[in-house]
Amino acid sequence: MTITDWSGAAPGAVAELYARESQQWRDAFDWDTAAQWLEVETARTAWGLPGLLATDDAGQPVGWLFYLPGPSGAQLGGVSATTHTMTRALVAAFANREQGRTFAAFIPALSPGLEEALHLVGCETIPHLHLVASLDRLTQPPMTRPVDAGITLRPWRTGDDLVAAQVLLSSYARDDAALFAPTGAPDEWLTYVTNLVEQIGCGRFVPESSVVVERDGRPAGIALVTLVSGAMAHLAQIAVMRDAQGRGLGGALLDAALGAARAGGARAMSLLVSSKNKGAIALYRRYGFEPRGHFLEARGLASSSGPSDQVTPVG
Ligand SMILES: CC(C)(COP(=O)(O)OP(=O)(O)OC[C@H]1O[C@@H](n2cnc3c(N)ncnc32)[C@H](O)[C@@H]1OP(=O)(O)O)[C@@H](O)C(=O)NCCC(=O)NCCS
Questions:
Q1: How far is the centre of ligand 1, averaged over its atoms, from the C-alpha of 118 (Å)?
Q2: CA distances for 159 relative to 165, 194, 215, 300, angstroms
Q3: Which three-class secondary structure state does DSSP give residue 290?
Q4: CA 233 centroid distance within chain
Q5: Is 2-127+297-301 in CATH node 1.10.260.40?
Q6: Annotation: CATH topology of 137-266
Q7: Ligand 1 pocket: which of 166, 237, 283 to mutate (most atoms within 8 A of CB)
């Protein structure tokens, strides 16, 4: 197997690999990612999004890895491989390139041996559970605890980005925020929300299924819902201001988001939750969310995993 820079790859050859990856996302997560791969390919050919290509001994492209360089290190955007050896070779070649620099990733565990390959190059990983709840079985709001007087729910309104950013800033502990807002600064949260609302990386935002909960007339929590395929809604974010947590607002938001998604035609709702977030997992399990697969949050200092006779490292 040979690993080379993917900039020289013919569009036709890579297209087949995107189609394979697309199918895997559909099978594993019911997530339609065709538009995402189109964006990746445009970035590869138009401005040189960095990436690597694995080619077999017959010269056929068989896998890829791409990443986005940034001021706080590279963000690994995806790894598409079909064998442990290919995964290891791609990740090792990436680490050779980024040697000594920090990098991060939030990617599905679809390529064989991905977690081990990331550990080998000096990365720590945290699994995130992919949970799914059927909306067909949802008969009545499963809320178990009445919410206080003064609590009202309202649909998402244009311009609520700032409200959501403020709620997120207040709700997440600093360590848990890093995935969304690297240093936890308010402007990073606003950028995160704006990207979620305007871009398709986490599905297409659905304002009609997204909810704000207010306490005494002030925003206290948000649930942001996207659509990742025709029938699969996705709870992209749910958060309650720290001083309002533990009073049933999270449950009320979940009730409202599930009901609105079902009214909008979705048949199921998915979400991703850190395996460390025991409180949120308990809440989701109560609402019928079941584990289907997992993603990996990864962070580390890229280090060479040593020479491999099966890899041609690239500079
Ligand atoms: C997760 C979150 C939205 C829950 O909102 P909330 O208003 O506190 O939740 P509720 O009061 O409706 O709690 C409902 C249930 O959730 C579970 N729960 C919520 N937070 C919990 C915690 N910190 N520890 C244990 N269980 C917790 C409990 O099962 C609780 O059941 P109970 O009524 O028997 O206590 C809120 O804690 C939050 O904003 N956390 C930070 C952001 C975050 O982690 N979001 C989820 C990302 S996937």
A1: 31
A2: 11, 10, 19, 36
A3: strand
A4: 14
A5: no
A6: Aminopeptidase (3.40.630)
A7: 283
**DSSP string spanning 72-105?**
T-EEEEEEE-SSHHHHHHHHHHHHHHHTTSEEEE
Task: Answer yes or no: same fold for 2-127+297-301 and 137-266.
Answer: yes
pTM over 0.70: yes
Q: What is the position in ligand 1's atom list of the atom closest to the CA of 246? A: 11
Instruction: Give per-residue pLDDT as tens, 157-174.
Output: 999 999 999 999 999 998
What is the C-alpha separation between 73 and 166, in angstroms, rounded? 26
Per residue in 258-280, pLDDT tens?
999 999 999 999 999 999 999 99
Break the chain into its structural domains and give their ranges: 2-127+297-301, 137-266
Alpha carbon nearest to ligand 1 atom 39, residue: 239
